[in-house]
C-alpha cells in the first residue's frame, strides 16, 4: 500500500523527504498541473513543511518536547510513547502539495519534513497524484 | 452543502469517523486511485489522524487543555469558548486522504478523528472526491 | 510560480484571505465539484481556518506566543525569528478546500487565514485546482 519508504536512524529526528516526494512526482509523469496528496501511514510521526537552516531541525524537536505537558497519561500500552502519538495528531500526517510543469510548487526555503518521534523505524508513505 | 453529519455527545470528545469517511468513498464509486478532500465546516472542532488505543482519546484532550495558556481572551462574544476556536485553528479542519482500489490508504493504527471542543453538537463535513 | 500574492502590514498579523481564494476559484471556471490545493510558499507564516469574531485574531497570536517555549535556539542565522519558523511548521502551510458549484465549501464562520509571524512581507501562494 505504501508508495514510499523512509528509514529514520534515531529516536527523534527531522528527515528531509522533499527529494523523494519530487522523485515520486516525476515517476508518475505528471506534465501538467495538479497536486500530490501524501499520507504518512503512522501514528508516532508527523509530516509538515519547514525551513531547514542548520539547527532548526533540533530546535523544532526541542519545541515539541517543551510544549508537551508533564501529565500522567492514561494510555496503558506504553505511556512512554504517548506524547509521540499526541504530537503526531497535532502536527498531522497529511500534506497536499500543488505541482506545475512536473515540479512541486514550494517556496525557496520550504522543505517537506517527516518528524520522527518514536524511531528508529521504517516509515511508509502513501501518495496520490491528482491532476494532469 | 454538507456531505456527512456527525453528532457529538459531550462537551469535549474524540469521535472516530474513519468508517463514515470510508463509506462516503464507497458511495462515490471511485474504483481507481485518488484522494478525498475533507473539510469540517466548524470553528470549534478539529479534524486529524490519531492512534485510538484505550485512553489516548482522553490523553489528547488532556494534552490540548494543558497547552492552552491561561490568558485573558479579547474575544467578547463568549470568552469561555475562545480556546475551542484557537485549538481548532491549530489542529486544522481539513484532511486529504489518498485512496486506491476503493480503500482509504491509512496506516494500521491510523484513525480519522473529529476533535469536539464545544459539544454536544451536530457537526457537518464536506467531502470532495478527487481522482478516478 | 505564485498564483496569489498577499501583503501583510505588521510583524504579526492574521489576514483573512477567503475572498482571494474564492476569486481564484472563480477565475479558474470550475463549475463542477473538486478541491483547491493551496500552499503558502514561506517558512515564517502559516495557513489555517479560523473564526474571526472581533478579537479572535489577536487571541490566536497571543495563544501562539504563549505556547512558544523560552529556549536557547540553535538556529544561528537569526535566533529572533526561530519561533516563527517553528510555529509555521506546527500550524502548517497547506490547505485543501472542497468546492461545489463554483463555491468553496466552508462553514458559516470559517475563514481561510494567513498567519503572519515575521512581517511585514509580501507572501506568495500556489493554488492547484482539482476536479471539474
Descriptive keywords:
homotrimer, alpha+beta, 132 residues, Jelly Rolls, three-stranded antiparallel sheet, elongated, five-stranded antiparallel sheet
- Count of alpha/pi helices of chain A: 3
- How would you describe the oligomerization state of the chains in this entry? homotrimer
Element order, helices and strands of chain A? EEHEEHHEEEE
Quick one: CATH class of chain A?
Mainly Beta
CATH superfamily descriptor of chain A: YjbQ-like
Q: Which descriptor suits the 3D outline of chain A?
A: elongated
Rg of chain A computed from alpha carbons, rounded to a whole number of angstroms: 16 Å
CATH fold assignment of chain A: Jelly Rolls
> Structural class of the helices, strands and pairings of chain A?
alpha+beta
Give the count of structural domains of chain A: 1
Mean pLDDT of chain A: 95
The appropriate CATH architecture of chain A is Sandwich
